[in-house]
Amino acid sequence: MAHGMRTGTHSGYGPSGGGGGGGGRGGGWRDTAQRYALLPLRIFLGVTFIYAGLDKLTDSGFFRSDGAGSIGAQMRNIRGISAVPELVDLALKSPAGFGYAIAFGELVVGVGTLLGVLGRLAAVGGAVISLSLWLTVSWAAEPYYLGNDLAYLMAWLPLVLGGAGVWSVDAWWRRRRRYQGR
After folding, report:
1. Nearest CA among 128, 131, 146, 153 for reference residue 82
2. Is the CB of residue 149 less than 8 Å from the CB of residue 137?
3. Measured between alpha carbons, how far is 172 from 51 in angstroms, rounded to an integer?
4. Are 133 and 87 in contact (CB under 8 A)?
5. Distance, CA of 164 to CA of 123 (rounded, Å)
6. 89: which residues sit within 8 A by CB, 6+ positions away?
7. Are 95 and 45 in contact (CB under 8 A)?
8. Which of 55, 113, 160, 182 has the lowest CB atom count within 10 Å?
9. How far apart are CA 120 and CA 165, in angstroms?
10. Which whole-number Å values give the CA distances from 81 to 23, 65, 106, 131, 139, in the listed order?
11. How confident is the model at residue 116 (pLDDT cuts 50, 70, 90)?
12. What is the distance, to the nearest Å, from the Cα of residue 147 to the centroid of all Cα atoms in its chain?
């Protein structure tokens, strides 16, 4: 007889997990903590990306191709220090279009992450935005840890791997499919 070995425990992230309420699940505080581990990260990233998108959309000077605070001036200023200047050149072909793409991308990623709608896809979108900003805007930050885009990229990876988890539309969809017998 093996003492201290528990079988059939529920992690909250497997095929039957990630669902919400927690009623009748058993387990202790560790199981609960594991089930909710990604929720603070999801809230932080969702709110931050929504704020970043809205901040851009409400700044009339941001979408101009030139002038203080404009996306065009920002891109020209970082071209010489970016790891991939070709990405900057692509943005400079249509600074306003690139600015709107980033702003709406941040909004969609933020809302998807906060609500847990297509959580992994939203997290991949957030990771792609963070990667592109790291390779262009904050690449030359020295020491590297002063550039926040790399930290954001790393913060997205657990959500890419784990999905939205609890308190999410994704979890609600999973429970609904399970109850419908599919």
Report:
1. 131
2. yes
3. 26
4. no
5. 9
6. 79
7. no
8. 182
9. 10
10. 53, 19, 24, 15, 7
11. very high
12. 17
